[in-house]
């Protein structure tokens, strides 16, 4: 299997190497780095001040999109249309984020199902993929500005615990931003690369990466042997970070100086962060805030954050336990994230592992710097025409509406295997068709069909009940085995395919190229098809809902639901996905209290999960 460099601009196989950049797509901040004169450097803004781009997107009333510092300023003035922490939503369904509504200042459409989340801004609906793509586009513009030439290829980092769906969402965001994502790399692996830990001639080593950012904490235990990083365990807290330290300082000042928190809120928060940062290098902090004198010394600050520090160490203990290791068995400890500049953090982590920590590189930049190193390695590899250990195109199956669902993403090392569960969308389906495709486009009709088979003899069940497990096993010879099994009945079947058979390098390059050229329109079509699929489920369950809850619904309520249903039905015939989404949102808002009343029947309940095509 070959790895093909493509020149997107000219639309052909690239003969000359172009640069691959490294991107840290963070929850709070993102940045891009590349190798300049043999050294990894992060690209700063136009003023040469900061390399960090706040991961914030603002939609202006006229539909202009602002990203980064410009968007951050709108957090207070236009919170409903200013989207932050979108990384927390990548590859997540509504059910995954239930209970987090209050954390977000913007609207996440909650329809209580397993479909992927959408975010509403100015009456339009966006997926986390589209929003992340905006951040990536801003980074692309930044690095292109610095280099004075186009950049088309990138390595993007993700947390070690990201699952397949979250990784695929990150790839899709790259594609939508016009970037060929050559590889998704784990953040702790990138940080280790930045410190050159893979270059030390040691047989094998065990590395702990302690990453404390603005709102998240991750500890990863890695095993490094023969240049390969293996994740032994991960742990952490998705709501613990520097923001908590700021809040602790605010609460302390409010109590000490009898401040009115409402009056000062944002100024107080900024002053607290300023104090925290100052105390990373100074012993005391003194300043004034709206006429009040405020001060803080490091000992008091340390006492305020002690419980958070302990919490991170508890996570470290758990991660070690899961990896079946003692602290003394860790060879290196790498510090990542802006908050690891706090001296108490450094000393506590160093004491916990009983060794000095790696903290010489800028903890904000270290992940991006490592991603750029990985990118450079890949660029070097490109000189070899043939690489036997990579699958050049994504492999997946057709799901409802003719959509491609990738199971093994392109550039996966082989041998590899991956699996996913699906269900049905029609009552009593006995035969389930599994169609296998290769390619990067969102619709299977644009991809290459590798084969199909029918899983026969599934006992009839209501839609949504069957549990169809699909497994892809790609062996070292490039032969793909596809296994399908219905878990409730244990009916199973499999086929074998050779994905590379009859496919030339030019054809592969063409497929890759087209996927990036058509990424935006593909995303539109996917959005529309997914909205229609969701609408179809709601239409089916709306009728059931009325039928089964006649006693508890008033005539007016029945009339209202019927009216909604008709409007939705009409909308699904059109091409406006935002309209479909808006009506679904209205239906959900209207039926939620009714469904609660009906308790035993929630709309859409019986129809959850991704459906295979019927
Ligand atoms: P993320 O990984 O979540 O995107 P970062 O690694 O960029 O986050 O970390 C951001 C956090 O680092 C913020 O809470 C910020 O206040 C904190 N931070 C930045 N510089 C310092 C410093 N000098 N001392 C203490 N905390 C800092
Ligand atoms: Mg980070």
Structure overview:
Helix content is 36%, strand content 25%. It has 614 residues and is α+β, with helices and mostly antiparallel strands. The protein is globular, with a radius of gyration of 26 Å. Strands 3, 4, 5, 6, 13 and 14 form a six-stranded mixed beta sheet that branches. The protein folds into five domains: 2-195 and 366-385, Nucleotidyltransferase, domain 5, CATH 3.30.420; 205-239 and 314-353, Nucleotidyltransferase, domain 5 (2-Layer Sandwich); 242-304, ATPase, substrate binding domain, subdomain 4 (Actin, Chain A, domain 4), CATH 3.90.640; 391-505, Substrate Binding Domain Of DNAk, Chain A, domain 1 (Sandwich); 521-607, Substrate Binding Domain Of Dnak, Chain:A, Domain 2. The longest helix is centred in the last third of the chain and has 30 residues, at 519-548. Helix 6 packs antiparallel against helix 8 (298-322). Mean pLDDT is 88; it is low at 12-16, 381-388 and 600-608. Bound molecules: adenosine-5'-diphosphate and magnesium ion. Residues 26, 213, 337, 367 line the site of magnesium ion (MG).
């Amino acid at each position: 299997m070959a790895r093909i460099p493509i020149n997107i601009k000219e639309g052909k196989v690239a003969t000359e190497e172009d640069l691959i950049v490294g991107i840290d797509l963070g929850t709070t901040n993102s940045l891009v780095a590349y190798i300049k004169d043999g050294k990894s450097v992060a690209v700063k803004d136009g003023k040469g001040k900061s390399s960090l781009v706040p991961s914030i997107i603002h939609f202006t009333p006229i539909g202009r999109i602002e990203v980064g510092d410009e968007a951050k300023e709108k957090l207070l003035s236009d919170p409903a249309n200013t989207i932050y922490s979108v990384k927390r939503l990548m590859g997540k369904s509504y059910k995954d984020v239930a209970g987090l509504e209050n954390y977000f200042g913007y609207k996440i459409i909650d329809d209580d199902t397993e479909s992927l989340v959408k975010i509403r801004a100015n009456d339009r609906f966006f997926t986390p993929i589209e929003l992340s793509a905006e951040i990536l586009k801003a980074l692309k513009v930044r690095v292109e500005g610095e280099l004075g030439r186009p950049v088309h290829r990138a390595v993007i980092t993700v947390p070690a615990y990201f699952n397949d769906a979250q990784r695929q969402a990150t790839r899709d965001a790259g594609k939508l931003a016009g970037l060929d994502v050559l590889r998704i790399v784990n953040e702790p692996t990138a940080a280790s690369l930045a410190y050159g830990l893979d270059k030390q001639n040691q047989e094998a080593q065990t590395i702990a990466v302690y990453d404390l950012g603005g709102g998240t904490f991750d500890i990863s235990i890695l095993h490094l042997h023969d240049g390969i990083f293996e994740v032994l365990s991960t742990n952490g807290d998705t709501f613990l970070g520097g923001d908590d330290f700021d809040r602790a300082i605010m609460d302390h000042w409010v109590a000490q100086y009898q401040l009115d928190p409402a009056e000062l809120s944002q100024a107080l928060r900024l002053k607290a962060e300023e104090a925290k940062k100052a105390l990373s290098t100074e012993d005391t902090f003194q300043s004034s805030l709206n006429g009040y004198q405020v001060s803080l010394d490091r000992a008091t600050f340390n006492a305020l954050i002690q419980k958070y520090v302990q919490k991170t160490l508890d996570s470290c203990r758990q991660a070690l336990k899961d990896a079946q290791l003692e602290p003394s068995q860790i060879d290196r400890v790498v510090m990542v994230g802006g908050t690891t500049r706090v001296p108490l953090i450094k000393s506590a982590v160093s004491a916990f592992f009983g060794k000095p920590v790696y903290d010489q590189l800028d903890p904000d930049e270290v992940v991006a710097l490592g991603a750029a190193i990985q990118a450079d390695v890949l660029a070097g590899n490109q000189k070899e025409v043939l690489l036997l250990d990579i699958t050049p195109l994504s492999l997946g199956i057709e799901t409802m509406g003719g959509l491609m669902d990738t199971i093994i993403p392109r550039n996966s090392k082989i041998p590899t295997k991956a699996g996913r569960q699906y269900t049905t969308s029609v009552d009593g389906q006995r035969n389930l068709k599994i169609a296998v495709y290769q390619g990067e486009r969102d619709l299977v009709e644009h991809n290459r069909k590798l084969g199909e088979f029918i899983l026969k003899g599934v006992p009839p069940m209501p839609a949504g009940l069957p549990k169809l497990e699909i497994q892809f096993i790609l062996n070292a010879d490039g032969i793909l085995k596809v296994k399908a099994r219905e878990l409730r009945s244990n009916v199973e079947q499999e086929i074998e395919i050779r994905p590379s058979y009859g496919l030339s390098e030019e054809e592969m390059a063409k497929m890759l190229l087209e996927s990036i050229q058509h990424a935006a329109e593909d995303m539109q079509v996917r959005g529309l098809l997914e909205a229609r699929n969701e609408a179809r489920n709601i239409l089916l369950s709306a009728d059931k809902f009325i039928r089964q809850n006649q006693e508890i619904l008033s005539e007016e309520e029945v009339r209202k639901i019927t009216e909604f249903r008709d409007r939705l039905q009409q909308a699904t015939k059109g091409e406006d996905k935002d309209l479909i989404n808006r009506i679904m949102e209205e239906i959900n808002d209207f039926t939620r209290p009714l469904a609660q009343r009906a308790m035993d029947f929630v709309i859409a309940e019986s129809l959850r999960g991704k459906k295979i095509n019927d």
